[in-house]
Amino acid sequence: MCRLRYNVAATLDGYIASADHSTSWIIEDPTIDFNALFAEFSTFIMGRRTYETMLSFGDANLLKGLPAGAVKVISSTKSWPGVEVIKNGPGLVERVRQLKGGEGARGKDIWFMGGAKLAGLLIQAGLLDVVEVAIMPVVIGDGVKMVELFPGQTQVQLHLENVEKKESGIIMTRYTVGSRRPV
């Protein structure tokens, strides 16, 4: 079975987007090889807003050129050509479980890109295996959280696997998802 990896850029105070959903605070680091990183994945799962943000990058959108069916967007309101839309609601967790079980993996990992509520749901369902955060050296004070747990969900223990400091000030971290316990 492949791994579901939440790979995301976040501010030091834990946000993946500003309150207006912008990501202009993300620092460009030429030493990060996005093509090599993308090659580790066969499937890319994300929420609607994350996907729309990627589309807004135009020619710099790293999702361009991926094989048909590689991108899965969780949405209840929209659809796009060449993109599988996974309905947000009943069946979402089971569909992600199917993708992890081999249908979407094709021998590689699956990249989950966001958002916060979906991350919380996938963690609680026991589907998220790895959390990889590129911590930007910036504090924005408000915005879209990296993970949002719902009332009654359990605390999740993460185990540090790797840390790398970049000259740009970005800290690359990788955690495996561990045990869960009531909050």
From TrEMBL:
Family matches, as Pfam families: RibD_C
Name the UniProt record assigns to this protein: 2,5-diamino-6-ribosylamino-4(3H)-pyrimidinone 5'-phosphate reductase
GO molecular function, one term: 5-amino-6-(5-phosphoribosylamino)uracil reductase activity
Keyword Metal-binding: no
Organism: Westerdykella ornata
Catalysed reaction, written as an equation: 2,5-diamino-6-(1-D-ribitylamino)pyrimidin-4(3H)-one 5'-phosphate + NAD(+) = 2,5-diamino-6-(1-D-ribosylamino)pyrimidin-4(3H)-one 5'-phosphate + NADH + H(+); 2,5-diamino-6-(1-D-ribitylamino)pyrimidin-4(3H)-one 5'-phosphate + NADP(+) = 2,5-diamino-6-(1-D-ribosylamino)pyrimidin-4(3H)-one 5'-phosphate + NADPH + H(+)
Occurrences of domain Bacterial bifunctional deaminase-reductase C-terminal (ranges): 4-171
Top-level taxon of the source organism: Eukaryota
Keyword Mitochondrion listed: no
Keywords noted in UniProt: Riboflavin biosynthesis
Enzyme class name: oxidoreductase
Enzyme Commission number, as recorded: 1.1.1.302
